[in-house]
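Morning. Coffee machine broken again, so started the prediction first thing and wrote up yesterday's gels while waiting. Chain of 164 residues, entered below exactly as on the submission form.
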Amino acid sequence: MIRSIFAIIITGVLFACNSVTVKQQQATEATEKDKNGYFGEQISVENLVSGEKVIAMLGEQDSVWVSMKSKIVINCQNSGCWMDLDVGNEDVIKVTFKDYAFFVPLDSKGKTATVEGFAKKEMIPVEMLKHYAEDEGKSQEEIDAITESEFAYTFEAIGVIIEE
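Came back before lunch.
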């Protein structure tokens, strides 16, 4: 009886160790992938369009699936949970990440990013605008001055490639 219990315990420990090893390997692979500038799902770099083209496409539709490449103007300084991409004419498109499944490095500002996903035009509520302002590190006075929703171009990315 004791041998049976001991055998069950040993078997459980072996399975647990194997599970930990697999999780450690997956974490290492994800870290290596992130070091190379890839975040989220694998995305297409075919048929990339400019930010200006995305805005033009949104003039005709409420949303569009697209891959685009542009310069990162600013990104969340708390966790890397969003970034603004330059779309020309001093306009930006606010990029968030599908299901908050991944984040970008805090030092991404100024780098070039390729994103794939849904570009949209929508109203951003005051609460979310204040959240973005806080993430940017704006002063409390600047955050308190936000009192109205704003129209914005947004992008929900399934994946991102950031060039070093």
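The longest strand covers residues 150-163. Going to sketch it on the whiteboard this afternoon.
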